[in-house]
C-alpha cells in the first residue's frame, strides 16, 4: 500500500537580477512564491528514505524553472525519526507554473 500526498506551490519566475535562496517547508503548501532572476527555491520536507518514502517531482514547467542538483537527505538525530529531504529549483525564464511533489514509495523501485 502506498500513501501519496501532494504539495503544490505556485512559482512565478520574473526577469530581475536577484540571487540567493528562498526556503519553503510543508507549511508553505499552496502559497504563491515569486522567484527573481537566478534565485533558487529550496524546499525542505520530512521524508523516510530508509523505508522508501520520499518526495518526487510530478509537475513543473521546465521552460520556466529547472531542478538544481539532486535531492539531498539530512539524517535525523534520533534513530527512526524522519529525515529532511531538500529539493532545489531555479528560475530560468519569466512566467508562472505550479510545482507539484508527491510523497510515497515509487512502485518502480520495489518491483
From TrEMBL:
<dbReference type="GO" id="GO:0004869">
    <property type="term" value="F:cysteine-type endopeptidase inhibitor activity"/>
</dbReference>
<dbReference type="Pfam" id="PF09394">
    <property type="entry name" value="Inhibitor_I42"/>
</dbReference>
<keyword id="KW-0646">Protease inhibitor</keyword>
<dbReference type="InterPro" id="IPR036331">
    <property type="entry name" value="Chagasin-like_sf"/>
</dbReference>
<feature type="domain" description="Proteinase inhibitor I42 chagasin">
    <location>
        <begin position="37"/>
        <end position="106"/>
    </location>
</feature>
<keyword id="KW-0789">Thiol protease inhibitor</keyword>
<dbReference type="InterPro" id="IPR052781">
    <property type="entry name" value="Cys_protease_inhibitor_I42"/>
</dbReference>
<protein>
    <recommendedName>
        <fullName>Proteinase inhibitor I42 chagasin domain-containing protein</fullName>
    </recommendedName>
</protein>
<dbReference type="InterPro" id="IPR018990">
    <property type="entry name" value="Prot_inh_I42_chagasin"/>
</dbReference>
